[in-house]
Amino acid sequence: MSLLKNLNSVQKQSVENTEGPNLILAGAGSGKTRVLTHKIAYLIERKKVKPENILAMTFTNKAANEMKERIFHLLKNQVNSLWIGTFHSIFARILRKNCEKIGYRGNFVIYDEADQRSIIKTVINELDFDVDDSLKPNSIKSKIKFVKNSNKTLEDLQLSGAIFRDEIFEVIYNSYQKHLIKNNAMDFEDLLLKSMDLFRLFPSVAEYYQNIFKYILVDEYQDTNRLQYELIKTLGGKNRNISVVGDDDQSIYRWRGADIRNILDFEKDYPECNIFRLEQNYRSNENILKIAHSIIRHNASRMEKELWTKNEAGEKVSLIITSNAGNEANYIVQKIIEETQKNQRNFTDFAILYRTNAQSRYFEEVLNNNGISYVVVGGIRFYERKEIKDVLAYLRVLINQNDSVSLKRIINYPARNIGEATVAKIEKYCSQNNLSLFDGLKEINKIEKIQNKKKLIISDFYKLLKKYIDLKDTISFSELIKYLIEDLGIRRLLKEEGTVESLNRLENIGELINGIDEFLKNHPDQSLEHYLENVALITDVDNWDRSANVVSLLTLHSAKGLEFPVVFVTGLEEGLFPLTRQMENEESLEEERRLFYVGATRAKEKLYLTSAKYRRQYGETTQGNISRFLTEIDRDYLDFEDLSYQKSSYEKNHRPKQKRTYKFSNSIAAKETSNNEFEQGMLVRHERFGKGVVNKVYKDGDDIKLNVLFSEVGQKKIMLKYCKLEKLS
Question: Which comes out higher in pLDDT, residue 703 or 545?
Fold first, then answer.
């Protein structure tokens, strides 16, 4: 009885029901890990199941280790024969024993992402393809990952229309696989795909493991992809004692291949299944749960459930509208200071959540200016991100040509096919002739054993640097960096790469430009040297300790599985949250709504929701609209405060004398531009560009600008005072 005494009635039922398929719908904060570990302990202690006959799979080593520790605590003894681990570790173990059947040796190596990129580069060079922007290693790698995780052949995917037919990719894909086999290597996706191949080609192997794994438990089932789904179905096909734990409302990794259909269709796949709904929440107060439910209930594709709690009602959720992103950060940091002083909270009680990594810059700078320690959880500090350090390295070289560390960082960024061997030859020449590395570039034609083609590339690189060294004293460094980024083609290359990672890097570079603009506004007399010094002070911090008293900054995706007493969910504006690229179809939009739900349910005691009226993107100020998610909230559990009337550097002429009464509308058009009679979606004609549709209307200082998508020439930015547009609708 002691094993079950700390469980509520539904948790107890889900633990005791061990036979057949079980779907345990575990809402946020409902104790799913407790149920999983108690179920395993119950099987061993009460049902006398041998540990080696139990398979438990999860997604992270941390989760697997936590489960092992809890089971040991419950049973008071080690259960080393228990099969518990991540999907990849479990199937790597199976492959080590059986891989010779499918052409591998048992000592195969597992290639990480860097190894994969290296193989792809080798393949492209061997095939002698012209390396254009469609052959970026990251893009190829993402496409290979998609194909493998689909559990379908490349040909089947092309026939179904899931991907376009691409003969060059076919050749690269097949050659990539040959290289892996030749090297006796597998990538991460192969660990699952080759296991599936093993079971298909050798049914006796599948049957062997079906007999071993009499009970299968899967954590975070909503995050499984189609290949993982098939592996679970195969291994559990004989005994059908499959218990999956998950929450469709927290399925937020579709971009990583997760398929929400796996959990939504579990009852169809296993008609005899038992369904247990863990709806009692032990984490949050009642008002937070009411707000969360009022959001998620708008999703059509979900299994009905509603979290409840015995916790007190608590404070209402606060919704704050600020004038701009800078004021949003200031408000949040002042709230943190106020809470620590009045309510004796620690900094570790607070989490600031955001949709994109680029948003962290404001919070980092304001926290730093107020002397508050912070940690970027699951990520890298803004100024330590690779793409930011690369651009800043250019600026450092423009200031100090003797900075060989920065020069070596940028000599092959963006990629110029200048490798370490070539740099080593230049450094050797410089050492022999007592030259700096920069001066060595100037004398590149004197250096032997470097190909003429590379000499020409290096000479062009030197000329580019010299051009901007001469230019830096004639224009502001805000203009300097914009011209430099354009000259280098960084934005174009990242856009054309088209991966989630490249788009995030693109957003970060845009945010760097915003930061420089704001630095100049606040410090108009400061030079580029002062800016670089300011940045260096922000990044020059000691390694943080997770137990330290610091504010946590993290993306909403990184926040899953965590909890904090006080949570700020920020940037709740159309186009940012939900992201523009996620608003194209209902499926993507529902995932964005689930992401909001995940963010809200991280809060234990107090939840703040913030939105900025104005936000800068790539050096331009745009007026957005509050997120549609805020219009869906049940306002009975909400305190609303409109601070957008406060004077903003973004709104020079916007000075209302009193607070506005904010209407929860979903109009996208910028209110300040309504008197110009141009609105988003309007059909217009330009005397040169022809017909087009207005995508965005926004202010830049005193000027009104429009983004217009023309049918013949594509997207153009139009400044109204310099051109005439004819309204067609």
Answer: 703
